[in-house]
Amino acid sequence: MSATRYTYLGPEGTFTEAALRTLPEAATRELVPMVSVPAALDAVRNGEAAAALVPIENSVEGGVTATLDELASGEPLMIYREVLLPIAFALLVRPGTKLSEIKTVTGHPVAQPQVRNWLRAHLPEAVWESAASNADGARLVQEGRFDAAFAGEFAAATYGLEALVTEIHDAENAETRFVLVGRPARPAAPTGADKTSVVLWLGDDHPGALLELLQEFAVRGVNLMLIQSRPTGAGIGNYCFAVDAEGHISDRRVGEALMGLKRICPKVRFLGSYPRAGVAAEDVAPLRRGTSDGEFMAASDWLARAQDGRA
Fold first, then answer.
1. pTM, rounded to two decimals
2. Which member of 74, 137, 276, 311 has the greatest number of CB atoms within 10 A?
3. Inter-residue contact 90 to 165 (CB < 8 Å)
């Protein structure tokens, strides 16, 4: 395995590359762009790279399905950290292009919902066609296949384009969450501001099936930050659920919730426990009464005494 190589969703000039370069270790790694999320993750699976950075969630569009599906299937991988990146688009064009001359535009499918209103207001007749990434859209504009692309302003220099319009976003404070993914290993020690990600499969379809999963978290005071259904491919109505929960697998409340889920789910895939981006331990809300590690241990001790006749 190449311990010094990180892959990411390319080509050069993507928001994913910009997010990767915010990591301190990126300065000492070989950063390799890949054509797709599956390609970036497969490089980790087959030992060509130590880790991959890929987008997993957008504050406007929600979960990035390509990443969620890849993490739910195939050889297991694990999330080690997350990166939050503010997102604003620039309209990149070949030098000299005027707004009135733009008839075709491109960008990543996740970008379209974030610029839809701007497009309707300023380029109502323009035809949209999706690209593999925003930077790939910039490359296609460079090649003359489209008139304009929505991408990061920083991609303009890479592809010999100019930013005709900048700071384009329909939603203020839009951001994308990226995750650094590697091969499974022991999670890092808890920080007090952590997140645990899992994928859960329902045993059978019956009234209250999803509620049973959620109750395993709720009765232990574990807050959920994301839950998204994804088709399993086994037919209409067959879904698994990607879940992000507050806390670390070493926290008693989280560990016991996962044990409960393992008892009732035919399959549970642990995706990792890792620090929450931009959140310090002192910023985390106090735990509900009865959900701290100390209270779980006290209850366990009480049960042991009761079993010994010492309660």
1. 0.88
2. 137
3. yes
pLDDT tier, 161 (very low <50, low <70, confident <90, very high otherwise): very high
Query: 């499918």: which residue's tokens?
Result: 109
What is the distance between the alpha carbons of residues 184 and 170, in angstroms, rounded to a whole number? Answer: 38
Burial of 308 (0-12, 13-18, 19+ CB in 10 A): exposed
Q: What is the distance between the alpha carbons of residues 258 and 262, in angstroms, rounded to a whole number?
A: 6
Residue with tokens 């203020």: 172
Could you give the C-alpha distances from 201 to 117, 266, 269, in angstroms and in order?
A: 37, 6, 9
User: Do 261 and 255 form a contact (C-beta atoms < 8 A)?
Assistant: no
- Cα separation, 158 vs 260, whole angstroms: 50
Residue that the structure tokens 């590697």 belong to = 182
The amino acid sitting at 49 is A
Rounded alpha-carbon distances, angstroms, from residue 213 to 162, 222, 268: 50, 12, 11
For residue 206, name the pLDDT band (cuts at 50, 70, 90).
confident
Q: Mean pLDDT across the chain, nearest whole number?
A: 93
Query: Taking residues 149-162, what's their average pLDDT?
Result: 95
Quote the DSSP letter at residue 130: E
CB-facing half-sphere around the CA of 147: CA atoms within 13 A:
16
Q: Which residues pair with 197 in a beta bridge?
A: 244, 272
What CA–CA distances, in Å, run from 255 to 221, 277, 286? 12, 22, 18
Contacts of residue 35, defined as CB under 8 A and 6 or more positions apart, other chains included, come to 10, 11, 132
The two beta strands, 239-246 and 224-231, are antiparallel
Query: Rounded to whole angstroms, how far apart are CA atoms 132 and 128?
Result: 13
Respond yes or no on whether the N-terminal peptide bond of residue 11 is cis (omega within 30° of 0): yes
